[in-house]
Amino acid sequence: MELILIRHGTTQGNLEKRFVGTLDMPLAPQGEELARKVGPTLPRVAHIYRSPLTRCRQTAQLLWQGTEMTVIDELRESDFGPFEGKNHEELKDDPLYQAWIGQSGDHLNFAAMPVGETAQQVVDRVSVGLEKLTADAAAHGYERVGVVSHGGALMGLLSKYGRPVREYYGWMCPNCGGFRVSLDPDTLELTVLEEYKG
């Protein structure tokens, strides 16, 4: 079975470099335009599995118009706790935030985030989502499905199951970017066949 794993289109929060997380932001006009542009470049799918958040529903509808969808709650984005909705400028004086970014080097270390969900909690949650998706797609005989989720959720999923192995941030993808992967239903390993740059 093939999965087309796609991060949702651009939101206003993305444009403002905010920790959007579980906030239910719609696509910005730029995000809608991007999804309309990317849609025709993607393979067709038999079904879509998506996060419950509005930005994923809107993206899925624009990428694969008229395709039926199933919501999988476990595919939602990481919960950033009190950092949600805020950006670096608004958080720079917060002691928790300072402690977090002070030890992070080139990237924010989500495994060491002092609030919200830990990276391991996200990995565990999205793993359950992948199990549900796999069982449902197999039961329906789908050969290729679309999966519309979030940057953090996809990084968590691929850091565990993606092949060839990459480090966590090696799986970061832009808005409307992602991967075409082959899913092994027994091991849940996701072998990359193609990468989409959004």
TrEMBL record:
Tell me the SUPFAM superfamilies matching this sequence. Phosphoglycerate mutase-like
**One of the record's GO molecular function terms:** hydrolase activity
What EC number(s) does its UniProt record assign?
3.1.3.-
Q: What keywords are assigned to this protein?
A: Hydrolase
What is one Pfam family matched by this protein? His_Phos_1
UniProt keyword Hydrolase, yes or no? yes
Q: What is this protein called?
A: Histidine phosphatase family protein
